Amino acid sequence: DVMEIHPVDHALDLTPYIKYPDGRGFHNTVFRWLQLLNQGYRIYDTINTDSHYNLHGSGWARNWIQSATDEPSEIKYMDMVHAAEQGRLVMSSGPFLEVWATEQLKSARVTAGQDLVATSKHVTLMVRVECPNWLDVDRVSVLVNGRIDPQHHYTRMSNPDVFRSGPVKFDRTLELTLPG
């Protein structure tokens, strides 16, 4: 079971209801999904372009599914099915995001869809963002309990030194102390 949290345009606008300038509005599905996670429900997320015809808006929303290989001809479709069922995927509007987490008392590292019990409340995140040459990233934020962590909210304008040019736009190790 998964939940499509379309549209992701307002992923960082963490309010329950979004209103457009023309007066139209809708419920912020990203906000609602984060609230379900905060309540302990393990519901994996997906996104798609809703493209029903070739070459019509195709490609702006992606699900990056974890794979044992980067060689397309070697990918086994059932491995992709199982990875999606296990939540080993990342939704994206284009950038490729890789996040690995470790806890200071453990040697194992985890990624999307995996659990990390951080009894010390100290977590290290390895965050890497990669983009094609026609796309750029100007913000990287860490959400803690569905809210932006002010210590780890980076913008190209405020923190130009943490962003790069070239395919890898952001590559940092971040230290977090979690309240609970």
Walk me through what this model shows.
The protein is mainly beta and 180 residues long. The protein is 11% helix and 36% strand. The chain has helices spanning 29-38, 77-85, and strands spanning 2-4, 17-19, 25-27, 44-46, 62-65, 89-92, 96-103, 109-110, 122-130, 139-144, 147-155, 168-177. The model has no long low-confidence stretch (mean pLDDT 85).
Major sheet characteristics: 4 strands, antiparallel
Question: Could you tell me how far the N terminus lies from the C terminus, measured between alpha carbons in angstroms?
Answer: 27 Å
Q: Could you say which structural class the secondary elements and strand pairing correspond to?
A: mainly beta
* Binned strand content: 35-45%
Write the layout of secondary structure elements.
Blueprint (H helix, E strand, L loop, with lengths): L1 E3 L12 E3 L5 E3 L1 H10 L5 E3 L15 E4 L11 H9 L3 E4 L3 E8 L5 E2 L11 E9 L8 E6 L2 E9 L12 E10 L3
Parallel strand pairs: 1-4
Antiparallel strand pairs: 2-3, 5-6, 7-8, 7-9, 9-12, 10-11
